[in-house]
Structure formats: C-alpha cells, structure tokens
Amino acid sequence: MDSFLIFSILACFILHLFLRRRFSRHRLPLPPGPTNLPVIGALPFIGPTPHSGLTRLARQHAAPIMYLKMGTSGVVVASTPSAARAFLKTLDAQFANRPTVVSATDITYNYQNMVFSNYGNKWKLMRKMASLHLLGAKALAGWAPVRRDEMGRVLKEMCDAAADKKPVVVPELLVCCLANIVGQVTLSKRVFSAQGEESNKYKDMIVELLTGAGLFNIGDFVPALAWLDLQGVQAKLKGIHDRFDAMITKMLDEHSATAKKREGRPDFIDLIMVNRVGEDGETITDTNIKGLIFDLFTAGTDTSSIITEWALTEMIKNPQVLKRAQEEMDEVIGRERRLEESDIPNLPYLQAVVKEAMRLHPSTPLSLPHFSYEECEVNGYYVPKNTRLLVNIWAIGRDPDTWEDPLEFKPERFLSGPTAKIDPLGNYFELIPFGAGRRICAGKLAGMVFVQYFLATLVHSFDWRLPDGEVLNMNEAFGLALPKAVPLKAMATPRLSPSAYA
Hints:
Keywords: Heme, Iron, Metal-binding, Monooxygenase, NADP, Oxidoreductase. This is Flavonoid 3',5'-hydroxylase. The chain is of the alpha+beta class and 502 residues long. Helix content is 49%, strand content 8%. It has one domain (47-501): CATH 1.10.630.10.
C-alpha cells in the first residue's frame, strides 16, 4: 500500500510538471507586432519594399523579434543579430524547412531544387554534391582558369568601349560573364558568345524572376485566394519557368550528345550523373538536376553581380575609397600586369570594401523563408507551430546598436575597432549576407570569390566616372534580390600598361 501511494504521488508530480510545461508556454506572450486586420493580417502595413517596411515596424514596436499575420499565415521576423542567432543557431534544426509557397511551385520544379526543398536526405545529398564538386574550396580552385578567361573577355569589351568613348552598363557585362562561368563549369558550355541581345534577354529574365519571387504574393499568405492570382504573380513566374526550362532542357540535350568529348574532363553534371545515388539509397533525379541548374544560373549570377555593382557604385560616390583601394593595388600589384585571385589576400582594404557593400546592400535583403512545424519558445516569447521565419538581413546590417554611423559607407570599420573581426560567412550574426546555420547559402565561398575578384579587377584595371551630365542613382529595386533601381552606367578609362590587357 505504501509503495502504491508513493508511486501515485510520483506519477501525479510528473504529470503536473508535464502539464505545467505544456501549458505554461501557451501563457507566454507572442512577440510584439502590429495589429492584424481580418483575413489580410498586417500585409497593408508592410508597404512596397518589405525589407524596409518590416524594419520600420520592428523599430516602431521595439521588437527585435516581431510576430505578425501575413494574410492567414503566422510570420516571425528577426531584425537584430541576437534575434537571428536565437533562430539560426539555437533553433537551427527546428527552422530548417521551407514553407509551401504557391507562387514558387513551378520555378522550383515543385520544390525539387536545392534552395526550396525541405530539410532531409534528398536535400543533404544535393548539398553534398554541390559542395564537393562545384562550390567547395577545392572545386573553386580547380576552375579558377575559367574565371580568369571570362574576366579577360570582360576587360577586352571594356577597353573597346573606352576606345569608342562609350559608357559600359556594369551589371549587363557581369551577368553575361557569370552565366558563362556557370555554364562552363556545370555543362562545359559558354552560354553567350558575347554580351548582347541574347545575354540581355537572359539578364531581363533573371531580374523578372527575382523581382516576382520576392513580391509578397497574396496567394502565398491567403491560400484560399491563391487560385485567383490577384497580382498575376503566379502566371508571370510560370511563364518565366517555362522559358528557363526550355533553355535548361536544350542545354542538357546538347550536353548528353557531347559526352564523349568530355572523357577524362568531367563537368559538374557528369559528376552528378555518376554519383547520383547516395549511401542511404536516396537518388538525385533528372528533375533534381534541372532544379540544381536553375539554382546555379539564378543564385549564381545576379546576386554576385548585384554586390559588385553596389560596391563599385559606392566607390564612385566616395572617390576617396576608390583612390585608397587603387593605391593599395598599385603598391601590391603594380600596373604592369592584371590582378590575380592570389593577390586578394594581400588587399585588406579591398576586402573591407566588399564586406561594407555586403553590409549596406545585401543582395538578398530578407532571408528565404524558414518554417517550423512545431511550437517553440524564443527569448521569453511563444512562437506557434506552422510559423514562417524571415530574417531581415538588411535591417541587421544597419542595426545602430552594432554599427557606428550605420548608413555611411565606411570600409575602415572592418580594418580596426570592435567590428574588424566580423566576416560575412555566417560565423558572426552581425553580418549574414549569405544567411547562417544549416541552410546557409551553399555558394557562400563562390560568392566571395566572384565579388572580390571581379570588383578588384575592375578597380585595378580602370578609372571610373559617370558620363557627363549623369547623376548617381542610389535607389533600390526590391525583389528576392536587391539590385539598383537604375543600373550603373559609367565611363571606364584603362589605367594599366597596355600589355596587361592582352
């Protein structure tokens, strides 16, 4: 009898602790945020540029972690380094999935690509193959000659424009160059023979895609209205997907037909075909391969171009920064040869310029949405299950509690003082242009190599100024990425020995 009584008391005590823990979380408050309207939630308060609108709301409600309804969907927004750390480090595994987004169904091959697929064995296999054969440090070093060759073509086009006294449209040149690099490494094919109408159509297609995918589509947040496609987003993105799919299908057909020519020199797709079955039996399908190529041609071209363009724009706006960077390069490299990737570790000021551009102008202002199927507690707040997470990378880079004079372009902040040690590769939550945690951008190393090498080469090789009568436009064009509203068009004057451009 005594044993039974002791057991009963112990069981009641354990049940009490369980129920207390279970229901006490529900008594925790939701994170602060704006008042939600029926059906549409807080969507009207966000405005046309969600990254800045969400920053304004977070500061208005003093909410590093903010909760709001977007339509009928619950969304939590992290707007400071500590808030981002809470989700992407402490609760990293819980928020490793992606939500179902109606407008993205077509462009992601029904979530069969790496960027939008849910966390699991298939995603791990695709990520492993991409890192091992394409985006890791060893793979990047292996295709350095491709980057050098394509950059040489850009230099030639710019010298020709300078000889004709014509300005260059910087993002058009860069996107063409990057697409050719991605094409050669993945499919052994230069996508464009030269910068021109075909490459401009590709650039326009990328811009349309990233703009449309970045819109806050009502159908994504109010599923009951998705079939109406009130903003025309779904139809637009499906049209872009069809054009992209036709391009990718054609390239894969040509790739299959030329397999014998690549014997002994496999490209990324060849390696995927050989290693498409993982150790656990998971398989990378033909649809997954299309999705991977789609990821590489979208995330691998326009995002790096955007950062490089913003960095060069800021240097033109701040000529003392341009002058100091060129003086550093002249001292380390001179003017008798081209800059090489191996020179970049010896250019600390140039590296600081790149970091500052990523801080002030992240190519992805809001992280791709994360999703949790379970409720959780964050910093004393209750976050319900089935909640989307947005990390406001743009707001974090401009956080006044972290950055002195946060709206000023000051590369020197990365050379000395408390922020000098910060790097953008996901180790410091004060600067996370590639995200952080297990869903950090797989191409973070490639992105750093692209931006540093391209920007350094442009700055070392040319003097820059605006065309006569032109005014520098610093406005942003919001989308999934954050390009300049008006592309940078500038006069480039060669500053090296003529033999350096050969």
